[in-house]
Amino acid sequence: MVFFSRMDFSQGSLFGYIEDLQELTIIERPVRRSLKTPEEIERLTVDEELNDIERAVYLLSSGQDIQGTSVVANLPVLMRQNPAETLRRVLPKIREVLHVAGVEMQLTAAVSFLTVLQDESVSIHTYSHSFLHIILQNLEHRDAGVSNAWLETLLAVIEALPKETIRHEILNPLVSKAQISQTLQSRLVSCKIMGKLAYKFEAHIIKREILPLVKSLCQDVEYEVRTCMCRQLEHIAQGIGTELTKTVVLPELVELARDEGSSVRLAAFETLVNLLDMFDADDRSQTVLPLVKSFCEKSFKADESILVSLSFHLGKLCNGLYGIFTPEQHLRFLEFYKKLSTLGLQQENGHNDNQLQLQTLEQEKKYISVRKNCAYNFPAMIVFVDPKNFHLELYSIFFCLCHDPEVPVRYTMAISFYEVAKLLNSGVYTIHKELVTLLQDESLEVLDALVGHLPEILELMTTNGGENSGSESKLLSIPDLIPALTTAEQRAATSLKWRTHEKLLQKYACLPHIISSDQIYYRFLHRMLTIILTNNVLPVQKAAARTLCVYLRYNRKQEQRHEVIQKLIEQLGQGKSYWNRLRFLDTCEFIMELFSKSFFCKYFFLPVLELTHDPVANVRMKLCYLLPKVKSTLKIPSDKHLLQQLELCIRKLLCQEKDKDVLTIVKRTVLELDRMDISLDAFQKRFYENDLLDQEKERQEHLLLEMEQLEKEKQQSEGRSTNVNDKIFEKKRRDNKTSSVLAKSMTLSVSGSSSGTSAGKEDKKSKLVRSQSFSTQALHPKYSNIDKCPKYLFAY
Fold it and tell me: Gene Ontology terms, cellular component aspect (predicted)?
């Protein structure tokens, strides 16, 4: 760099530098024109006439390492094809090669041996005779990764081996392998094997032959061995039962909990928590509880190494010891949880301004993990304090965790939000604000975690939302919900995480059960149409199209419904972009799924057929794929004219189509259409279920229209004067108006009498009651299966 800073770029100097460059000689290096030399290629060449077994033996005997590794990886295939010859000729060669093999071949062999066991290519007796000794020989490989790979294979084999084989081949040699004179690796392997053997033998055999080794390894001079054996005590306890656990395992755990090694103490604590169910009340109160209290006290003072584990197991610990807590101990553990939940946030709370500057990066990560674990345990702590005491005891912590500055903490709270809402039940209204907060979170990961159970959460909010819950004022229970939902969708739309956006749009299909039809129409429905028209991601567009169809299905005003249908046809079906016309066909598929056949035929059948003349081949091709579904919506004889239109369009396609790919699809579709049977207006046995479902959809469509009409009449009747003379006058005027309305509604197939008799009035009243009950029912279905539950539609 100094040389270049002193360079003079004047004309004379520049020519001098050029002369110097010309004096440089370029050293030619030999370029290797092939990856392998002829000699190497010759060594890698194998006679093509050799069969698979002979080739494998040859490569293992005189091939290179990579060829031998390939043979070992192919061992399961050879065992399936020719097990006898493979065991006789190939496996002995593999056994020889493994003595000097490298790490890659060793790892490959461990996996292949396990695959042979899982494939059941040979009997377990043959496997133990041929493969088990090779596995045991390589257990103590000098490379830790190789040793662990063979150990995993052995542990899987132990599950399948008979007891006698395990006793002679594994348990008896284990006595010598677990001695203090053996290597560290050998003793660690022995610990893990004993944990597995505890499930294979009866309690008296474990007590006589395994427990002495367990006690010895728990007192090993190396802390790694003590830690490993301590973690296996859980499996040992489950194998020997409650009584032996109390007399043998618990004393060992107590001693290990006071070990000088922090990893040993941590293993002892976690094993104690996992074995809580096996201890009786006396053991919990006299032995376990004092140890737990000691762990909690030391975690802040002298032993922060167990802080993360303690915070992770605290929920299970508190509920496991719940029956033996005194009120004072109950309060102490609750305060301890609260302290952990805000650990490391003193600066944000206005205290210890210089504390975070002194903390190391590792400490900060540890504190974040602790608060994340507290968020994970929050539902368990609600059970601990009782949901009735949530607002008094835990709401402040819930608020802090939902507003935590770290994303992992808020993410965990978003995941557990549904569990919290279920536990609170009728008290769920207390966490409305936190729901809105998480919906508006700056991290899309948090939003994605929350959206997973959003329909269930909103259902709990509206059905158990305190005094304001109910169909008439359900929106009032979460006043900021709509802005939060729209903000969340806009943030997802502007991000690059389209899967989150797709998931969000799918879950928004639950909103008709949460907020009013007008709110959906003005705040969400048009937004869905905009997404279909402008978004560039196909799954997002399809999700928006389906949700729009759900909104259309639940819309309660006929004028709004017709407006949306008109926009779908004009902006999608007749749009300038072929991409929009393709999305129109997707939307029509959702219409056929969600609405009745009659509805589709009235509004969308002909606009779909118009696309047979589309100038873009892809649109015509997609339409051809859709034609069988379109034909299935027809009913004969009422839709005979539409069937004629369909047949005319198909004939035109057959005669006029120039694109050979489209023509191929057309011919295939014609054959499929010819094989299809068309539903009749009357019920048929083979279509009974489908016809019954379609009839229910159609009935609900008519019922919604009746409900809309009768509610208008009810509103008019409520506005009458209480004066008797005014009543008479209003009655005459209403009767005249009713007759005209009924005359106009004949084409809408609205049942009802136009007479003003008392019988007609009673009939109207019964319809209104039936419509209102239907409305109430439709507004609160379960979201778990939104398409199968009863729903209301609109008539045409």
Answer: cytosol; protein serine/threonine phosphatase complex
pLDDT in tens, 545-583: 999 999 999 888 888 999 999 999 999 999 999 999 999
Q: Please, which residues have CB within 8 angstroms of residue 100's CB and are 6 or more apart in sequence?
A: none
Give 466's DSSP letter: G
Contacts of 166 (CB under 8 A, 6+ apart): 158, 197, 200
Q: What is the DSSP string of 388-427?
A: GGHHHHTHHHHHHHHT-SSHHHHHHHHHHHHHHHHHHGGG
Tell me the mean pLDDT in the region 425-444: 93
- 3 state SS for 235-253: HHHHHHCHHHHHHHHHHHH
Tokens for 305, please give them: 């190494």
Do 528 and 547 form a contact (C-beta atoms < 8 A)? yes
DSSP-derived 3-state class of residue 182 = coil
From residue 84, alpha-carbon distances to 49, 68, 89, 437 in Å are 21, 20, 9, 67
Structure tokens that stand for 103 in this block: 């790490």
Q: Maximum CA pair distance of the chain?
A: 122
Cα 531 → chain centroid: 25
In Å, how far from its chain's centre is CA 775?
33
Contact 284, 291 (CB under 8 A): no
Which residue intervals of 425-536 are DSSP H helices? 432-439, 444-451, 454-463, 481-494, 498-507, 517-520, 526-534
Determine the Cα–Cα distance for residues 607 and 603; give it in Å rounded to an integer.
8
The helix (H) or strand (E) run that includes residue 329 is helix 327-341
Residue 488: partners with Cβ closer than 8 Å, 6 or more residues away: 439, 440, 447, 451, 504
377 phi/psi in degrees, rounded to 5: -90, 0
Task: Report residue 515: phi and psi, to 5°.
Answer: -125, 170
Q: Kindly report, residue by residue over 365-394, the tens digit of the pLDDT.
A: 899 999 999 999 999 999 999 999 999 999
Cβ(240)–Cβ(194) under 8 Å?
Answer: no
Peptide bond into 637 cis (omega under 30): yes
